[in-house]
Amino acid sequence: MAGTDREFFNLYNHNFVRVSVAVPQVRVADPDYNALQTVALMEQAATQKSILTVFPELGLSAYSCEDLFHQQALLDGCRLGLQRIVDASRRMNTIAVVGLPLQVDSLLFNCAVVLYQGNILGVAPKTYLPNYREFYELRQFTPGDFIGERHIELCGRSNIPFGTKLLFQVEEQPLLTFFVEICEDLWAPVPPSCYAAMAGAAVLINQSASPVTIGKFQYRRQLAGGQSSRCLAAYLYSEAGFGESTTDLAWDGQGMIYENGTLLQETERYNYGSQIVSADLDLDRLRQDRMRQNSFAQAVARHRQVLADYRTIRFSVDLPAAGRLPLQRIYERFPYVPSNPETRDERCREVYEIQVQGLVKRLQAISADKVVIGVSGGLDSTQALMVCARAMDLMGLPRSHIIACTLPGFATSERTLSQARRLIRAVGCSAFEMDIRPSCMQMLQDIGHPYAEGKAVYDITFENVQAGERTSHLFRLANLHNAPVVGTSDLSELALGWSTYGVGDHMAHYHVNASVPKTLIQYLIRWVAGGNQLGSEASAVLNEVLETEISPELIPGEAPGDQPAQRSEAVVGPYELQDFVLYYTVRFGYLPSKTAFLAWHAWHDKTSGNWPDIPEAKRNEYGIAAIKQWLRVFVERFFKQSQYKRSAIPNAPKVGSGGSLSPRGDYRAPSDSEAAVWLTQVQRIPDGEAE
Fold first, then answer.
1. Which residues in the chain land under pLDDT 50?
2. Among residues 183, 348, 405, 440, which one is catalytic?
3. What is the pLDDT of residue 216?
């Protein structure tokens, strides 16, 4: 495999960086021992190709030294320990952030030192010093912003940047810009990291020594996770662990890595040795979220005077971007469907609440107490029918007010027609069946189509005549009963343009599935069936629907069969893979090459990623060649062919943060754009996997 292809499978070439949080075992007031523990963990981080490693507050001395901080022997020992770490760092390819007490102009500061391969890049002192309850830091230290010095001498080096407003930026990866705050800084009403994020830091670091009490670990999670979300940043938190003095306190060694509110990795609390955890940060995600959430930019503008005081220290790093380096991070194969059963059940429940509320409000707004829906026996109409049933229950109306129509045409299979009929009966709807073939033949004759003359011509006209007749019948039936037509088309079909413009499942008075992807619909149906929520008869049909081939059923097969003759996924691609692409395209705007890299990690074998309760026999695999093939289809259909259909879709409630394609809501785009720039990116994806 060519070198460039091998490097495609390297996380650093897709704007990921691997970072580590280390919690060393310490000895109180023993800088030499603590330096050795620090160096050992740095070596582990470098071996794992982690480019940034964070250590706890005052890790070289231990935090719990109290008045020993005023002993010159300890302070000098910490400087010697730092020198040992700096010297050892020459052979390691990781940026280290270590904590120690430092004397500057006869004042003592609680500091974080940032170093890389023998160079001290800068020193960040702690701003907020706690002096309440068990904390007495003002007894020993000076707040970091009490000094006017901007540079200091340290370890024989002069002109080292010093201050509370330092940003560190990697020249080879400018998105890796980080800021260091220390413990109590995060507990302040406005943490310094808030301003640092607005000044450009995407990665926020906290060296901490927070003694443990009952339940405190949860509060730390709330603080770190909340700050990560608020600042649209990564947050690396390293907590003092075993070896700190237990004279009056205890320490649990909690280390955390967050990315915009998502906990990626956490240390084992109450570990009695040294430990390190690593995670792969997605810097593109942070950049995209800051670009989209324009209140972030407004905050930057409002605080520009404060932000002008921040200094950026740029330095060069040897990023491990050559050769193969896969992600350690697990990506869900089904980003719209949580793999955790408990979380998934709650997600299903919430989706239904949103869909039902949208429909109930619309019915109340138009003073309607009935609905009309076409039921095909497939996934989408089944889900929409269940939403209608729940809406009727909530409004105190009988389910017979659902006028459920079966509309068999030239290619309707015996299987789906049977499923539709049985489901309508099990739900308790008013059944209405209309054979559309006579009216379709009339239309085909009227326009002079060859099929009307007995020729087996199954072109787009033949397909769309059937879709149009179904819609025409449903809308006229709706007029007759003063009831809206409830649409069934889902988010996946809208993304791929897999609908007939103006008719078919593209058009309705109100949609309920328009922001629900196909993969999630499958789990919504499975959730209802698994809980027997509509009764055992309905559950049996729902399980059959889940096993039915996805098809528009518009072209007849050579012989009548149990399954539909057409396969939607043979044309538009596997929905499970295309939903993955859809999520990362709409939610984050990633390059197709990066989306392919993520898809490969999630789908290239049956053991990768998380499978939400799918039997192994039914698990699919997609290598990079298949991913590239279907990504090209997605790009062409999504960016070039299908926007005009999305620009004319009916109202529908937004369900998830993963995207809505409503032209009035999340997604506005021209109907006549090109797909060239995306297709160019697709071409950069290798045709085979690196060895």
1. 1-3
2. 183
3. 94
Calpha distance 406→416 (Å, rounded): 10
Distance CA 181, CA 144 (A): 10
Of 65, 78, 111, 126, catalytic? 126
List the catalytic residue out of 49, 57, 244, 463.
57
Say if residue 89 is in the same domain as residue 131: yes
> Which CATH number goes with the domain that contains 360?
3.40.50.620
Q: What is the pLDDT of residue 504?
A: 85
**346-364 pLDDT per residue, tens:** 999 999 999 999 999 999 9
Residue located via tokens 């072209």: 555
Distances (CA, A) of 552 to 309, 408, 465: 61, 12, 13
Residue 126 designated active-site: yes
Round the average pLDDT of the chain to a whole number and report it. Answer: 94
CATH code of the domain covering residue 142: 3.60.110.10
Task: Return the SS3 of 575.
Answer: helix
Tokens of 578: 């295309």
Locate the DSSP E strands across 166-298.
166-170, 173-182, 203-208, 234-239, 256-259, 262-266, 275-282
Q: What is the pLDDT of residue 3?
A: 45
Question: From the centroid of its chain, how far is CA 678?
Answer: 21
Contacts of 327 (CB under 8 A, 6+ apart): 11, 16, 280, 601
Q: Which domain holds residue 646?
A: 341-683
Any idea what the Cα angle at residue 261 is, between residues 256 and 262, rounded to 5°?
65
Note whether residue 690 is domain-resident.
no
Residue 334 lies in a domain: no
| CA separation for the pair 503, 648 (Å, rounded) | 11
Give the whole-angstrom CA distance, residue 255 versus residue 541: 49
CA distances (Å), 157 to each of 17, 110, 534, in order? 29, 19, 74
Interhelix angle 379-395/518-530, rounded to 10 degrees, is 60
Please, where are the H alpha helices in 259-413?
283-292, 294-302, 304-307, 341-365, 379-395
- Cα–Cα distance measured from residue 685 to residue 15, given in angstroms and rounded to the nearest whole number: 16
